[in-house]
Structure formats: C-alpha cells, structure tokens
Amino acid sequence: MKQYVKVLLLLLIPLLLVASYSMWGGNWWLEKTDFSELKSVIDSWVRPGGEAMEVGADSTFAVAEVVTDSVDSVCTAEVEPAPMDTANQKILFFGDSMLEGLSRRLCDYAMENGHELTSVIWYSSTSQTWAECDTLEYFIKKTSPSFMVVCLCSNELFVRDLTERDKFIGRIVSKMGDVPFVWISPPNWKEDTGINDLIIKHVGEDRYFDSRHLELRRGRDRVHPTFDAAADWMDSVAVWMSGDSTRHPIRMAVPLQQRPRKFKQILLLPPE
C-alpha cells in the first residue's frame, strides 16, 4: 500500500509544478519529449524493490517540457579583454530550482538579442546529481548549444564533504567541453562552507558570476528570490556577461519592450 501512496505522490508533483506555472500568468502547454536515450536518469528513478517509474517518449507526467507564453515587466578577475561574440547563440541554461526566476528574465534577453534559450530545471539537484549521470550530456546532444549558463550548488551551501564536491564540479566542467559557459553562483542567504571557492577553482573568476554580495528579496521560504528579485539578479548577470571581465562575452542588450515569452523549459523531478 505504501508503494502506491508514493507513486500517487510522485504523480502529483508535476501537477503542482504546472499549477505554479499557471499562476505566473500567460499561456503554456506541455509537449512530449523523447527521453529514451537518457538511460542513467531513468535507471535512477527505480523504486526500492525494483518498481520503475515510467519515463520516456510516451510519458509527460515525469518530465514536462514547457513552452511559456507570458508577459512581464524589464567580477572582478584580472583577465585580458575579449572581443564580444556578436553571433546569435543557442543557450542551454541548466541547474537547480534557482532557474525558475532567472530563466524568465534570461528569456527576455534571449529574445531581444536573437538568442534561442532552453532551460533545464532539475529540482533539488546538486553537483553530485549532475556529475554522476548522463543528463547533461543528453541535453547537450539534444540542443547543440553554442553557449551554456549554469546556476547550481544552492543545495550545497553548508556541505562538509568538500573533497567530493570538488570532484563533482570538475566533472560537470569537463562534460561541457569546449562550449563557452558562465556559472552563476548561488545567492547565499548565509555564509557557505566553501562550495563557492570550489566553483571558482574550476571555472575561474572570468566565468564565475558572484551572487553572494547581492541583496535579494526572498520568497516565503527565505531562500529563493522573488520573481522580481530574480529579474534584478539576471539583469546584473547580463551586464557582466556582455562585459570585458568575462572570458567569452556575448550580446546581452537590455530588453526594450515587453513581449510574450517563448522558450523551452524542461522540468525534472527531484532525485531520490
């Protein structure tokens, strides 16, 4: 009986996510997507006792691919100035739940500057989650990004196993290969135990946006920034991404007009 209760609860999670999206305003719809190649993630969703949760081309309840259509209001490393890459980018944005607010505003910048955005939110994920499976490789292959943005490790601010986290972050950077990227640090609400220093160690200050100094209004959980605060956060990131202190500047002109947001967003269930 307990197994059936767990399954019912898991089925309710995507419905709650969809309900939260509906509160953001605008129109949305779900699309099926083929996850048949994503073997390690599917294997990781096997229940104790061998009962597997169905995930694949004929399922939309476990992983929702959402296209939003809504309207809203708009580092200090010593590096050699790099010329701005003025090409239209295919941006893959991946990480934890901090992406919820950031993705909306990044979409505004993408549409203003001719970029294409795909956002992958893996709820409650950590560096270990992304490092120990082929999820990132899958979405890199699926989207063929020319630029990547990471926002990860908010769930690891107070960890003690830094030696292991060091390895996980290194693996994630290795998975991204030669694709240019930036890593947006967690928006600390308390001092961390060293995870940000590990990120800097692997990506360098010219690919690391330091969010620790930002004063952001938080939601009810006192952890996640409100949508308005997340928009301000993304505005700060965008200025840095187009500046000469980042390793690979891209075009990030400020959005000048409101328009319906159109971007692809994939929601992944929390890992067990």
Shape: globular
Output the CATH homologous superfamily: SGNH hydrolase
- The radius of gyration over CA amounts to 18 Å
Q: Order of SSEs, N→C?
A: HEHEEHEHHEHEHEHE
Number of helices: 8
* CATH topology label: Rossmann fold
Distance between the termini: 20 Å
Overall strand count: 8
Helix fraction by DSSP (H/I, runs of at least 4)? 25-40%
Task: Extract low-pLDDT stretches.
Answer: 21-32, 39-77
Number of domains: 1
Quickly give the CATH architecture: 3-Layer(aba) Sandwich
Largest sheet: 8 strands, mixed
What is the gist of this entry?
By secondary structure, the chain is α/β, with parallel strands linked by helices. The protein has helices spanning 2-22, 39-44, 99-113, 127-131, 135-143, 162-176, 195-203, 227-241; strands at 27-31, 63-69, 90-95, 116-122, 147-151, 181-184, 208-209, 264-268.
Description:
The chain has 272 residues and is an alpha/beta fold. It has one domain: 3-Layer(aba) Sandwich (Rossmann fold), CATH 3.40.50. Helices cover 35% and strands 15% of the residues. It is built from 8 helices and 8 strands. The protein has helices at 2-22, 39-44, 99-113, 127-131, 135-143, 162-176, 195-203, 227-241; strands at residues 27-31, 63-69, 90-95, 116-122, 147-151, 181-184, 208-209, 264-268. Strands 1-2-8-4-3-5-6-7 form an 8-stranded mixed β-sheet, with helices on both faces. Helix 7 links the parallel strand 6 and strand 7. Helix 3 packs across helix 8 and helix 6 (162-176) runs parallel beside helix 7 (195-203). 35% of the residues are buried.
What keyword list fits this structure?
272 residues, alpha/beta, Rossmann fold, 8 helices, 8 strands, 15% strand, globular
